[in-house]
Every structure is written in structure tokens, then in C-alpha cells.
């Protein structure tokens, strides 16, 4: 959710490895084989991440909104507005870093945000563990707006 | 691209290897390289397997060349790593002898390198189920690997810290936290609320100091070699320092180091031994008590260290300073490390 490197940047790297493999002359060295396996792993994990991204982001925004709902302090209102406007997990992460840095260490809101973050992480890790099937990818593709 | 049979060996690399060995007195004019291949693994070092025929009628001998390539993942000192191996040659530890260090960055290996013996044994990868099963069989049976993992750690921590300070940098708890905090914040491309909270949490938990010792810094079964049910080699000393030895205990207790990635790994510590058994044996043999709360602090610091290293990989990849796709892959290890941190902080 709070991850650097876009899909495009990752796919460029996978493509470079494919080109290297195609140009290989003879048996591959261990290092080259590890590059191919890592590239495969990137594609699987990226597909799993994509499959879950929209749902995770929506869940995170709703949970944060609920945790911060009745707090009228300016720093909390600002964070809620930024979370509401966020289009990516990285933007939510920016807002949360600023919020947690501004809240006093003993502020009870911190525990609520921590709880949401913990559940988010568990959901994200579980999503990465799932292997998207070709069929589910095709169904999502057909149902996506053109 | 292909495996390096004798006629395919990169002549410039072979010449550089032999020149360094000759300067160290480990080769002579009749020595020739018969095999040279880059090995899998090595995130901030590149490792090459080499065989050299010294023309002495004793056949080929096997070596490993460790190079710090341009665009290396971490700015760690290869000279320190070489000096650490040299320090350990006479220690009661299974470490390789060393055969020369070339400090120049202008080499066919695109950076400085040193040469060491290739030890017998194979490395295990705890993220592969068959390897975890191999370790579980040792734990359920003879426990040779499990016992060696403890006893070698005790032996590392018994090295004279003054002598070790001549080889590697001494670091306090706070200096270690500052080091990884600094690297992380220099390299991070996005803000991460879990990591920020973890650094604040860990700074409030500075353990009472203990007598300093040589700290391996990346001690885990994956950095050991195994042969015949025993540990035959301890490698990858690039993160070693002189400091609090409990760092090694904490780091190897990470769930990640038991084979967890997106699914749980082994229930054994580092996929190798029962946690209480390991700590009890370590405490009894070292005379150093093991406080679970201090171990927890160092486990979190270990996670933050890995986070900083992976973040560095992502950074150098994003900037085009490496095409090594493993650096990009490291991005997918970060959610699991966040999960470990959240649990350690009792969120």
C-alpha cells in the first residue's frame, strides 16, 4: 500500500530480463537464472497486488474515516480530508505520517490508527499470497470500464 | 552468457584474480584459472566461483571471489569484510581463509574484490519449503545444525572485541539505529507510517548496555554452509560490527528469517531450532543472559535494517543505477516486514 515503484517501472525490469534470457547463448549461469525467477515472482506479486488494490484502498479510507470520525481537531480534519482525496495508498501514507507525527505520543487516536494499519497490513500480505488466475483476471478485464 | 568452461573464461577477470592471489603469496607464475562463474545471490556483493590449478600436482583448488560492484546495494566497506575474515582465520569457527584483497574500484569485476577459500557445503534458503523441511529434520533428529548455529554464535561473541575493533567499526545501539534510520530516510521514495512509528518506538526502548562483542550483523542459517548435518561455513560478514551481541539474537528471531514472505514459514527460530531451546543453550554456553524484551527490540531493529536495505535496492533500481530485477522484487518483501514490525510493537 505504501510502496514505491509503479507497475510500469516493474514491467520494464521484467522486460529487460526477458530480453536477456532470449539473448542467452548456451546454459544460463546461476545469477541469470535467479534474475529470471525474480522477474517471474515480480509478475505474480504485481498481479496479486493489482487484483486487491482498489478494494484495499477503499477499505483503508473507510476504516480511517471511522476511527477519526468524531475528532474535530484541525490536524485530524486535515488528515481526513487528505485521506478522502487520496487516489493511491502512497498518498494515504503521506497523510498518516504527518498525522502521527503531529499527534502527542499518548494520544488515544494513535492506537486506533495503529489498529487500522495492522489490519491493513494483514489484508495486504494475504492478498499478495493469493495467485490471481487467468480466469479472474479476464473477468475483471471484461467488467472494467473501457 | 554461458557457463565458463576453461576456453570461455573472461581473461581479464582471470588475470585480475591471479594477480591478487600472487600478491598475497597464494598463487605463482604457474597458476592458471580453469573455471570462473558468477553465482546466484549476493545483493550488495557479487560472488564468483573459481578453480585454480597451481601446477603443483595437487589438482585444482576452489575459491570464491567477493566483489563490490559499481551500483552496489549498500555502501559497506569490502576492506572491513576482508579484515574480518582475516581476523577469524585462527578462531574456532568455520570460516574460509583469505587470499588477497584488491581495493581498487577499477577492476574487471567493476569494483574492489577479495579472494577466499571455497568451503564444502551447501546454503539453505528458508523461503523454500524443501530447505525448511531439511532443517526441520535436523531439529527433529540429530540437531547437529541447530547446535552448531548456537555454538558458533557463542564463539563469535567470544572473539576479543578489542582485536575485532581493529577490523570492523564499533557501534552503540543508538549509532546502529541512527545508521539505518539515516539510510532509510536517504533512500525512501515514499513515506511509510509504519516505519516512522517503528523508529520512534525503538528509540524509546534502548537496552541497558552490555559488554561489547563482535556482532556478525546478518547471522542466519542462510548465511551458513551445511554439509553432513553440520555447519561447515559462516559467510557474509559485510554487516559486522563491534557492539551489542544481542542484535544477532534479535535479528535471527524475525519471522521473515524463518521463511515467512507472504505466508508463514517455519515455527522454528530461523527455521532451525526451538526458540526457548536456542536461547537457553546460548545463555548457558555464553554466560550472557537472554532478556526476551531486549531480543524483541533487536528483532524490530533487524526488521528496520532489512527495510533500509530493501528500500536502498528499490531506490537504486528506480534511478537506473542497476538493472538487477531482485532490487525491484525487494519491494514486495516490505509488506511482510511491516507486518512483523506491527506485531513486535503490539499493534
Task: Give keywords.
heterodimer; A: 146 residues; mainly alpha; 6 helices; 77% helix; elongated; B: alpha+beta; Phosphorylase Kinase, domain 1; Aminoglycoside 3'-phosphotransferase, Chain: A, domain 2; 2 domains; five-stranded antiparallel sheet; two-stranded antiparallel ribbon; 12 helices
Describe the protein's architecture and organization:
The complex is a heterodimer of chains A (146) and B (347). Chain A is mostly helical and 146 residues long. Chain A is 77% helix and 0% strand. In chain A, helix 1 packs antiparallel against helix 2 and helix 3 packs antiparallel against helix 4. The radius of gyration of chain A is 20 Å and the shape is elongated. The mean pLDDT of chain A is 89. Chain B has helices at residues 11-23, 78-88, 129-140, 144-157, 161-165, 173-187, 193-203, 246-252, 275-286, 292-318, 325-329, 334-344, and strands spanning 32-38, 46-53, 60-67, 98-102, 113-117, 213-215, 224-227, 230-234, 241-243. Chain B has 347 residues and is an alpha+beta fold. The longest helix of chain B is centred in the C-terminal third of the chain and has 27 residues, at 292-318. In chain B, helix 7 (193-203) packs antiparallel against helix 10, helix 8 (246-252) packs across helix 10 and helix 10 (292-318) packs antiparallel against helix 12 (334-344). Chain B folds into two domains: 6-117, Phosphorylase Kinase, domain 1; 129-344, Aminoglycoside 3'-phosphotransferase, Chain: A, domain 2 (Alpha-Beta Complex). The interface between A and B is large, with 50 and 45 residues.
